[in-house]
Amino acid sequence: MKDITVIGAGYVGLVTSACLVELGNKVSCIDTDKEKIRQLHQAIIPFYEPRLKELVEKGLENDMLSFSESYEGISENSEIFIICVGTPPQSDGSTNISYVCESAKGIAKNIKRDSIVFIKSTVPVGTNELISSIIKENLSAELDIEVASHPEFLKEGDAVRDFMEPDRIIIGTFSELVKKTAHEVYKSLNLQKDKIIFISPKAAELTKYAANSFLATKISFMNELSLLADNLSIDINEIRRGIGSDKRIGEYFLYAGLGYGGSCFPKDIDSLIDAYKKNNIESAILSSVKQVNENQLTSFLSKILDYYTIKDLKSKVLLIWGLSFKPNTDDIRESVSLKLIQKLSTQVKELKLYDPVAIPNSREFLKDINNITFLDNQYQYIERCDSLIICTEWENFLDPDYTHISKLKDKVIFDGRNILNKNKAKEFGLKYMGIGC
Ligand code: NAD
After folding, report:
1. Ligand 1 probe mutation, 5, 39, 85, most atoms within 8 A of CB
2. Distance between alpha carbon 432 and the CA centroid of its chain, in Å?
3. Hey, which of 160, 259, 331, 430 has its CA 20 to 30 A from 186?
4. 10 Cα to the center of ligand 1, angstroms
């Protein structure tokens, strides 16, 4: 059993804390957001993430998980620190690492024994080195501190499973002590197969950006191909099946749609583009990936505007399913759905919006728009709506009740995630418009 302190109780930090307890460790989680910590003391999870509440409750009950709003109470037994604070984008695309730097100072001033500090936040190459020097400058006693890069690859909505069943665990270090400690902490995840990959700290930092950029590239590739498929009357899903069956390509991240959003892909791609710029190298691929992603929303919007005349649209009530940036989360950061709503709201009479869990966050984000109504369920007032737009692939949208949907006045579906069975929709007299299909 290790005594671990996790810094940051967000999507990554809280999952990391709860899962490390599940692996048999004692974890204290620090977050400077007092309200978040107050809620966590009562096992109230400040965001939606399946399976997390049960783990947090169990950890609190067993006295293996605790929460604090200050660094001063860092346990004298704590020997491992994991920084999981946010690294938001700045207006020029570069990454704001000030929260990581503040965490490093907080640790250094309050640390009580030789320790290892892992940086799990996604940070630009070189941050590991910087944090090492910040800690040395701020240490209050003569202590040996190792800093290692430990990027996180979990997906919101499936974060607990991703943590407990990782494809790989990346540790950027040259230290034998860090390697030994990582093996001890992740022993039970590593029984069948050695999943830990030790590489240099800089390589670990870049690996995280490379992984997200590669996945985003697959998405943008399919989205660009979907434009051609649309023109040639080819179903992009048939292409997906055709190429996804090739093991060299792989079946994941090949779905054409409204494009990627969320708190990671957009900012991580910007950050990598910024790294290219700072190294005076052109990043032709990444700039195109970003551009294609932005065009995807514009071309979907044009599909709606082409279907209705601008004058027509002014009298229409459109129903939108899906507000979060992807299913199984209430995270609306960089949600394509909300961007679409902002653009469409000025062109229509009204938008009726439904999402299984992201309505509270969206209500706050969209508070300045007055021709929107939030719904209690996906079919509420459907007979008063003209058409349906699907923006997020939540499970309960995958096989909907078409009898209800056929009550739409114009009987049209704009499927921004290509999730419906278009033949079934047509059987119910509905006009179906997907992306590249
Ligand atoms: P988040 O915004 O959900 O949580 C960050 C938390 O850090 C907040 O609760 C905030 O109050 C806290 N915090 C800020 N400064 C602090 C400080 N000085 N001391 C203590 N707490 C502080 O962010 P997140 O989504 O969990 O992401 C965290 C990091 O992990 C980012 O670098 C992100 O890029 C990376 N990441 C995120 C995901 C994801 O799916 N969300 C996946 C992999 C990696």
Report:
1. 85
2. 29
3. 331
4. 5
User: Does residue 30 have its Cβ closer than 6 Å to ligand 1?
Assistant: yes
Tell me, using a 6 A CB cutoff, whether residue 95 lines ligand 1: no
Distance CA 349, CA 309 (A): 13
Kindly state if the Cβ of 67 falls inside 6 Å of ligand 1.
Answer: no
Indicate which residue of 84, 264, 385, 437 is catalytic.
264
Atom 2 of ligand 1 has which residue's CA nearest to it? 86
Closest ligand 1 atom to residue 123 Cα is 32
Nearest ligand 1 atom, CA 103:
18
Q: Give whole-number Cα distances, 11 to 67, 120, 121, 215, 329, in Å.
A: 15, 12, 11, 20, 10
pLDDT tens digit at each of 437 positions of the chain: 999 999 999 999 999 999 999 999 999 999 999 999 999 999 999 999 999 999 999 999 999 999 999 999 899 999 999 999 999 999 999 999 999 999 999 999 999 999 999 999 999 999 999 999 999 999 988 999 999 999 999 999 999 999 999 999 999 999 999 999 999 999 999 998 999 999 999 999 999 999 999 999 999 999 999 999 999 999 999 999 999 999 999 999 999 999 999 999 999 999 999 999 999 999 999 999 999 999 999 999 999 999 998 889 999 999 999 999 999 999 999 999 999 999 999 999 999 999 999 999 999 999 999 999 999 999 999 999 999 999 999 999 999 999 999 999 999 999 999 999 999 999 999 999 999 99
264 catalytic per annotation: yes
Q: Is the CB of 110 under 6 A from ligand 1?
A: no
